[in-house]
Specification:
Helices cover 20% and strands 36% of the residues. The protein is of the alpha+beta class and 528 residues long. The protein is globular and about 75 Å long. The two termini are 31 Å apart.
Length: 528
């Protein structure tokens, strides 16, 4: 991903698909989050969850994300036969997310799980939690809930109570597991993720920002064309939002469309977009000031297929946020676009620093388009952009050669298809760096590369490479539709590949990562 996005969005590992996302993938309905929420809770939940002094047993001692509350309701439906109208369900989730959600800082570590970043590195929560919870769950999901200690203990008991058969399955909860999980692990989880925190106290009563207005947008698509443009956001009477997108990718193709979204807890944007006829899910976070929206969009059926999103409110101030492309080589001339707000009325020409010449400049309120020529003898390094009194720090990286190439992610998984499940691909990027005069490395972001995938087992190499799938020149490994092939001489549960990226430029820098291609994973584990 580009330097610009790398500063804001953490990159990514395996996250399990859960029923909460299936529910979220349905049509968004108006949800009255405030008035009536407690009455709905009393009407639909108090028959099982006793109310005492304004607290509901096994509800009031928990805080979760919207997905967490959806998963809780799904579990109530599966285990206890809960039947509620979809509008009631949505209103309950909205109310619980607003009154018993998580503050923005409390979701940072686990956002890779919310945003379905399939190959992000999981959290390290200590050996006890890693061993007792991480054997079945992504630890990112564990971090996205806060509970009283007794509720952490109750959660452990749930694993061997209503689902007692789990105790007889391999790597599943057993008697020793329950003793540890409901004892020392519950105490550790309470210390890490307590019900009461300073950040939630400060956030919970804060008025939600009205996101209506015009926004400047810039996006990154791993293995594809980046884009920029505007989002016009309006609020409806129920408090949900409609966004209309006017976007253009770096190849000049229009990416127009719109989104219907609900914002939970004052900052959790959950949208359903249709861009150029393609349905997409949006998991975004609104910044504390209400003037920035960042996150990830993805294909609801293939979460590995997605990209980054960053939007800044157009509040009339002149600012510059990003340049596409970000890195330019010495001795080249390239068409670029600088994304920002209030740029059309700034006096004077665009400047990108020593060793650069800017020509054919065109401006509108949200972009500057120009041709940038980098001198052959320009010094490699980071350059600021300026126009009039407006500056953008480090928007341009100048390089003479690519000295280091890293493949991201370093470790990834993909899945063969089966009769019931479609293949799950894995997306890689080649991240280049150049070495500066002082010896430091300057990241250039994603660079063009030639891709190959080589089996790590010499005995099965030709068969693995023939039957397991292939990597295309976007850096995406496309697994075979079916994992079992009658003509294959060898068989196994997985195949190990070395994924190789080689720079297309004259330096031919090379980087490697590891990929495991496996069959469909069958698990009875839910996210909570």
């Amino acid at each position: 991903m580009t330097i610009f996005f790398a500063r804001i969005i953490k990159a990514s590992t395996t996250v399990r698909v859960c029923a909460a996302f299936i529910l979220l993938a349905g049509p968004i309905r108006p949800a009255a989050a405030g008035a009536g929420g407690e009455e709905l809770l009393r009407a639909h939940c108090s028959a099982c969850h006793q109310e005492k002094s304004g607290r509901f047993e096994h509800i009031s001692g928990i805080r979760q994300t919207p997905e967490g509350w959806l998963m809780t309701m799904q579990r109530m439906r599966e285990l206890h036969g809960l039947v509620v109208d979809d509008k009631v369900r949505d209103a309950l989730v909205h109310y619980l997310s607003d009154t018993q959600g998580l503050a923005p800082g409390e979701t940072l570590a686990g956002r890779f799980a919310l945003e379905r970043r399939r190959n992000a590195a999981d959290l390290d929560l200590g050996v006890d939690i890693n061993t007792n919870c991480g054997r079945c769950h992504s630890l990112g999901w564990i971090s996205l809930q806060h509970r009283e200690e007794e509720e952490w203990r109750e959660l452990a008991r749930l694993h061997v109570g209503p689902r007692a058969s789990l105790a007889h399955q391999g790597a599943a909860p057993d008697e020793a597991w329950l003793r540890i999980a409901a004892g020392a692990v519950a105490t550790q989880l309470t210390a890490r993720f307590p019900l009461q925190t300073v950040s939630w106290t400060a956030w919970k009563d804060r008025p939600a920002a009205d996101l209506s207005g015009l926004w400047a947008v810039v996006g990154h698509v791993p293995g594809g064309q980046d884009f920029q443009g505007t989002a016009s956001i309006e609020r409806n009477g129920a408090g949900d939002y409609r966004a209309r997108y006017q976007l253009t990718d770096t190849a000049g193709a229009a990416l127009h469309g719109e989104s219907q979204a609900t914002v939970y807890t004052g900052y959790e944007w959950r949208g359903h977009a249709k861009i150029r006829g393609r349905a997409l899910r949006e998991i975004y976070s609104v910044g504390p000031s209400g003037n920035q929206i960042a996150g990830r969009w993805f294909d609801p059926d293939h979460a590995e297929d997605g990209g980054e999103w960053l939007a800044f409110r157009d509040n009339g101030k002149a600012r510059m946020f990003a340049m596409l492309p970000h890195a330019l080589r010495t001795g080249t001339s390239t068409e670029v676009v600088i994304v920002g707000t209030g740029l059309e009325n700034q006096p004077g020409p665009l400047s990108l620093g020593e060793g650069t010449v800017v020509t054919n400049e065109q401006r509108d309120s949200h972009s500057i388009r120009a041709r940038v020529t980098i001198a052959e003898d320009a010094q490699p390094g980071s350059r600021n952009a300026t126009v009039g009194s407006v500056g953008g720090l480090g928007l341009l990286a100048v390089y003479r050669q690519i000295d280091q190439l890293e493949v991201a992610p370093q470790n990834a998984t993909a899945q063969w298809g089966s009769g019931k499940a479609a293949p799950v691909s894995a997306q890689f990027e080649a991240i280049g760096s150049t070495r500066l005069a002082n010896g430091a490395l300057l990241s250039l972001g994603p660079v063009a590369a030639d891709w190959s995938a080589v089996s790590l087992d010499p005995a099965k190499r030709s068969e693995d490479e023939h039957f397991s799938g292939q990597i295309d020149q976007r850096g995406r490994f496309l697994p075979a539709p079916m994992g079992s092939k009658p003509a294959r001489g060898f068989s196994g549960e997985h195949v190990d590949f070395s994924v190789i990226a080689r720079s297309r430029e004259a330096d031919h820098a090379e980087g490697r990562a590891q990929l495991i291609v496996t069959g469909e994973k069958k698990s009875t584990a839910s996210i909570y």
